[in-house]
Amino acid sequence: MSAVEYATVRLPFHATGDNARLIYWTAWLCKLCAHKLLDKVKENPQLADLSQYYFIKIGKELCYDIIPNRRYVYGISILIHASLQSAKALRVDITKLELKPWLLFQSEAEPLAKGNLNIQFTDHDRVKVLVFDKDGASKKITIKPVIPKSYAKLIKTLVDRAHRKEIGYPARVYIMNYGDGLEHLYGEVQVMVKYNFYLEVMKKYDKPLGNNIAGVDVNVDRLNLVVINRDGDIVWKYTARFPQVTARGYPRKKAWSVIGEAIHAVLRNAYSHGASVIAVENPEIMGYLKYYWIRSGDRRSRNYNYKVSIFRNSVIERIIWKASLYGLKAVPVSPKGTTHSEDHDYLMRKYGLDCHTTSAYLIALKARRNLRTSFSARL
Fold first, then answer.
1. Staple partner for 84: which of 48, 50, 235, 273, CB 3.0–4.6 Å?
2. How many other C-beta atoms can be found within 10 angstroms of the C-beta atom of residue 206?
3. What is the pLDDT of residues 224-252, one digit of tens each?
4. What is the pTM of this model?
5. Is residue 307 predicted with pLDDT exceeding 70?
6. How far, in Å, CA of 177 to CA of 68, rounded?
7. Distance (Å, rounded) from C-alpha 263 to C-alpha 231?
8. If you ran DSSP here, which 8-state letter would residue 110 be given?
9. Of 332, 310, 293, nearest to 90 (Cα)?
10. Average pLDDT value for the chain
11. pLDDT digits over 51-70, tens only?
């Protein structure tokens, strides 16, 4: 399991008039750059094997005449390169990749430029952004994002340290919606903060209350938690349900807000019932979220099971990187046998558990066995 490097903080904003149009055109130019890069890779799939350094050089050659700013060209090149690596890991045919319908632009961290030169916090609730019109002329505008109370301390600390040139942050302007004539535009300033820094500011608990083991089973409409002691006995069961998010047309942003609350509820329950370890099924490929920006053009990959797999991996990743906020260590276990097996059926009958709670119990038991094996190996 790869280490979590960044946590993404999403700050909504609303722009009007000329500012809305300039944000749109900057994102549109970057999207043209992304299309040009991806088309080049589809013509020559070996380019997907290049290192990030050499891929950025290709991006500069192809895109600087589209958007004349190396930081935005680098940002789109890095995004496409990371997406290609995840697509390769998921064994998706590179020649059939397509861009999803996003509009955005991003700039990498620069500590000596007070955090970020192109998308820079000038105050705790002000962001100065370099934008372009459709002809490539540039200017700087100010965006006033909404800072949720839950992130106020994090953003204040980040901005203060950035202004002292102690820390940098990659940042992205992401367009969510816009009106006719581009008079109104709704979007997010997405700030990527180092995970260690995120924990330093946001951590709720430093140490666990006990030495129990928690297991979590992730499904499309619920999270099932089982906490066991070191003897394997169940000491707590909990289910966080969110059936509304599966309804057709339910807003994506609202759905992830509901799921986020469910994740925190599960982690609070694990912590308060003495867990020091929380086990989850090992996802197919950690970091797959980088694949979010592209999709396979092969319709066979767009089936229900594929979407469920991607969704579950996404939830599991969130559990892993939020676990440390509660002083918990996240450990992955093999999913083999946790859903369909003789052990699963036996435990359901023995303890009168539903199938999802039984899966969570088996995940916890697997973690217990793995931890005991690891401990014995060190003796």
1. 48
2. 7
3. 999 999 999 999 999 999 999 988 888 88
4. 0.80
5. no
6. 25
7. 26
8. B
9. 310
10. 89
11. 999 999 999 999 999 999 99
Looking at residue 240, its amino acid is: A
Q: For residue range 149-159, what is the model confidence (pLDDT) as tens digits? A: 989 999 999 99
Predicted pLDDT of residue 227: 98
- How does 288-298 read in b/e, with b if 16+ C-beta sit within 10 Å? bbbbebbbbee
Identity of the amino acid at 165: K
Give the separation between CA 136 and CA 282, rounded to whole angstroms: 45
Q: Which residue has the higher pLDDT, 150 or 129?
A: 129
Q: What is the spatial distance between Cα 304 and Cα 281, in angstroms, rounded to a whole number?
A: 19
**Structural domains for the chain:** 6-202 (no CATH), 212-378 (3.30.420.10)
Beta strands in the chain (DSSP E): 6-16, 97-99, 104-107, 119-123, 126-132, 138-143, 171-178, 184-194, 212-218, 222-228, 234-241, 275-281, 294-296, 329-333
Q: Pull the structure tokens for residue 336.
A: 């083999």
Instruction: List residues bridging with 140 in a β-sheet.
Output: 130
Taking the mean position of all CA atoms in its chain, how far away is CA 350?
A: 38
Q: Specify whether the CB–CB gap between 291 and 90 falls below 8 A.
A: yes
Question: Closest by alpha carbon to 26, among 142, 107, 133?
Answer: 133
Cα separation of 27 and 20, whole Å?
11
Residues 77 and 60: beta-carbon distance below 8 Å: yes
The phi, psi pair for 64, rounded to 5°, reads -65, -25
Please give the Cα distance from 207 to 358 (Å, whole number). 28
Contact 281, 215 (CB under 8 A): no
Inform me whether the pLDDT recorded for 91 exceeds 60.
yes
Mean pLDDT, residues 61-88 taken together: 93
